[in-house]
Design goal:
By secondary structure, this protein is α/β, with parallel strands linked by helices. It has two domains: 2-94 and 171-271, Metal-dependent hydrolases (TIM Barrel, Alpha-Beta Barrel), CATH 3.20.20; 98-156, DNA polymerase, domain 1 (Orthogonal Bundle). The protein has helices spanning 17-26, 43-49, 84-110, 117-122, 132-141, 148-156, 171-180, 204-210, 224-237, 263-271; strands at 2-3, 31-37, 55-65, 71-77, 184-188, 214-218, 240-243. α1 crosses α2 (43-49) and α5 (132-141) packs across α6 (148-156). It starts with a strand and ends in a 10-residue tail after the last helix. The structure holds adenosine monophosphate, zinc ion and fe (iii) ion (2 copies). This is 3',5'-nucleoside bisphosphate phosphatase. Residues 2-66 form the Polymerase/histidinol phosphatase N-terminal domain. GO terms for molecular function: 5'-3' DNA exonuclease activity; 5'-3' RNA exonuclease activity. InterPro entries: PHP_dom, PHP_domain, Pol/His_phosphatase_N, Pol/histidinol_Pase-like.
Length: 281
């Protein structure tokens, strides 16, 4: 059971890396991808929690924006965590999330919602990459909405008037940086249209030219016709196909292992990294 996309309290998940690895072991997962938003800060704890028979594919989910302003999430797996270029890119991305959050809080406040930046910081685990789910948690705590899901549905989607983007690399720059750090790049949930505008399938060839290795296809935010279309794109461009849960703990319905990657696809993806970096206890 191979689940290559999950989140912890190092970003906007609700389980610590330790708890995530233990839940994955109980769920029978054999390869777990750890992909917190714009950070590798959960890696060490996950490695210390790992024991047979689980292997870890350490990585990060990098928020990017196309030149047309479309949000694209790029999974980087199996890169060298000590690589200074990728760490600088992740650190810049985390930094820009703070002024972005302040702007979102100001927009909500100016419409009369009870929320302050201090509330959001209080809802964010120490050291975590700041994200909209933390704003959602603060809105729940203040009684504005009942759940993360309601906060997103009512106030925080990408096309909401309260949504603000943050400065991020383009998908091509993120891919090149992942590859230069020895890792593999997989575009996350590229057709998740309920999150807002999505890229057109014609730009996949540009991403492949930048070094893209794979497409996450089996993901709860993709319909069956979107999966069929993406399988055609993957076949045409000879890309690896992955499936994953995008587990976030209690914050979202996604359950560990609900979507999986085929072992042959994983074997191929792993072979594309510059060296063997899977953590096998
Ligand atoms: P951000 O990175 O700050 O733009 O926040 C995006 C994150 O919000 C993504 O990781 C999503 O997993 C999460 N998200 C999107 N929709 C929902 C939802 N309905 N409930 C909980 N989390 C969500
Ligand atoms: Zn998330
Ligand atoms: Fe994502
Ligand atoms: Fe994710």
């Amino acid at each position: 059971m191979i689940d290559l996309h999950t989140h912890t309290t190092a970003s906007d998940g609700t389980d610590s890396p330790f708890a995530l690895v233990n839940k994955a072991l109980s769920a029978g997962i054999t390869v777990l991808g750890l992909t917190d938003h714009d950070t590798t800060s959960g890696w060490a704890e996950a490695v210390s929690a790992a024991r047979k028979p689980i292997s870890l594919a350490l990585g990060a989910e990098i928020s990017t924006l196309t030149e047309d302003g479309i949000s694209v999430h790029m999974l980087g797996l199996l890169f060298d965590g000590e690589n200074s270029e990728i760490q600088a890119m992740l650190s810049d991305a985390r930094d820009t999330r703070i002024p972005r959050m302040k702007k979102m809080v100001e927009l909500l406040r100016s419409d009369g919602f009870a929320i302050t930046m201090e509330d959001v910081i209080a809802a964010t685990p120490e050291g975590a990459t700041l994200g909209r789910p933390h704003l959602a948690d603060a809105l729940v705590k203040n009684g504005v909405v009942k759940s993360r899901d309601e906060a997103f549905a009512e106030l925080l989607t990408n096309d909401s008037k309260y949504y603000v983007t943050h400065a991020t690399p383009t998908p091509e720059v993120a891919i090149r940086t992942i590859v230069a750090a020895g890792g593999v790049a997989v575009i996350a949930h590229p057709m998740a249209s309920r999150r807002g505008d999505v890229i057109s399938t014609s730009i996949f060839s540009d991403l492949v030219a930048a070094g893209l290795h794979g497409i996450e296809i089996d993901h709860r935010d993709h319909t069956s016709s979107e999966r069929t279309e993406l399988r055609q794109v993957a076949a045409e461009l000879n890309l690896v196909i992955t499936g994953a849960s995008d587990y976030h703990g209690q914050g979202k319905l996604n359950s560990l292992g609900e979507n999986l990657t085929d072992p042959a696809q994983w074997e191929r993806l792993e072979s594309l990294a510059s060296q063997r970096r899977v953590v096998t206890p």
